[in-house]
Specification:
The chain is an alpha+beta fold and about 260 residues long. It has two domains: about 170 residues, Trna Endonuclease, Chain: A, domain 1; about 80 residues. It contains nine helices and 14 strands. Strands 1, 2, 3, 7 and 8 form a five-stranded antiparallel beta sheet that branches. Strands 6-9-10-11 form a four-stranded mixed beta sheet, sandwiched between helices. The protein is elongated and about 65 Å long. The two termini are about 25 Å apart.
Amino acid sequence: MLDELTPSYGSLDEPRRRLVMRDNWASRWTAAWQVNGSTVVWPVRDLGSVPVLSSKPVRGFTWRTKQRHRPGLEFLVSTGRMHGFESLEERAALLALDFMTVIEVLPQPFALSFEHVDGHAKHTPDFLAMMGDAGHWLLDIRPAGLIGEMDAVKFAASREVAAACGWRYSVITGWRPHVLSGLDALSAQRRPLTDQLSCQPALLAAVADGPVAFGELVQATRVPAVGRAHALHLLWHRRLGFDLGRPLDDSSLVWPAGWTESR
């Protein structure tokens, strides 16, 4: 689903040609993790045995005046705790992962050391996300205009590591139109809500037969202003659906989860 929210980065085949991957590369490339307060180094071939849920970010998050990036902490409903990010772009990725009901997210999961045609290099991917049945997803976040030639080589190396581990890998360079504004609107009501006015059953009943405009939908509740908050809550938790590729307003069509046009 994450791939549906972001534009395609493009091919990493050309940067991959600069990687040195002969002679059992998975034994020579290494990844350093922070586990139980110590740095532990595994060859890439053994990363499947890493106790991921016991690890910590390999570098800390710092705040100082005049720094050019915007680090911080983001609370995820899916995990019930705060997660560090190093830029506003990474914060947006955390919000999207929360919408996808991620099980766990590890920022700065490991420091990769790899070989390329000009020598050795290191790279720390931005996130390792555990997605339940979808498995692990390794992510690098970088605006398209800031990706240099060596960055692409590092991304290609990360992709090879992910493939060796059976993980998915993506480079997020931005978001499709209206995705972030839509997720931001829904996230305002992502935490648990008490439904004393039975708004949620009324909302679900109103769309039972097919799509209804958002403004009309909330009018089906006893108090539309309260119903609006519960409608956003149901959209966030995907008990209702709408097109994230369009702005969310009163004219937006909303449908029940699992609805298809052929029904």
